[in-house]
Amino acid sequence: xxxxxxENVRDLPDxxxxxxxxxYCQVMGQALEKRGFNVEIAHNVDEAIVLxxxxxxxxxxxxxxxxxxxxxxxxxxxxxxxxxxRIIMLTGFSSIATAVEAIKLGAVHYLSKPADxxxxxxxxxxxxxxxxVEVATxxxxxxxxxxxxxQKILNDxxxxxxxxxxxxxMHRRTLQRKLQKRPRKD
Length: 186
Known about the structure:
This protein is of the alpha/beta class and 186 residues long. It has helices spanning 6-11, 22-34, 45-54, 71-81, 96-105, 117-125, 142-156, 161-167, 172-180; strands at residues 14-18, 38-42, 59-63, 86-91, 109-112. It contains nine helices and five strands, in the order H-E-H-E-H-E-H-E-H-E-H-H-H-H. The longest helix has 15 residues, at 142-156.
């Protein structure tokens, strides 16, 4: 939290920002405060759970891929505390499987990085789906299909890399290398 008075902070909606990137949290946190939120920052799921148990946030921006448990675990936890919490899942590693799971767990929207504060606010305020969203005219590339399949199997094994590697009949290190690469958008 930056330079807001204690009196003003009580009137602002609470927002929990969870991302392992310190600079991103600082920049996004300040931008969201300027837009009228009382921002609390955590850098992993465990820190966020502690903060949420002290004060359940009305809003949350949660990174998917962090050290330790994934942001999906936090989405489930936040909804269990308060089913009205408006959660945005934010990730640089987007996949169909994780987007579907985030929404099923209670997130109201799923944004790919980089997303700015205005996009986050717009996502919080969206109530309905968008029938004008662009529909792909080309099938996914083989690389993208592989990425999607790995994400689905990883999700099926609750994020366990070893179990996922065994299920895919792949060496664990090979899987870790594939997970570190960002998929192409095609």
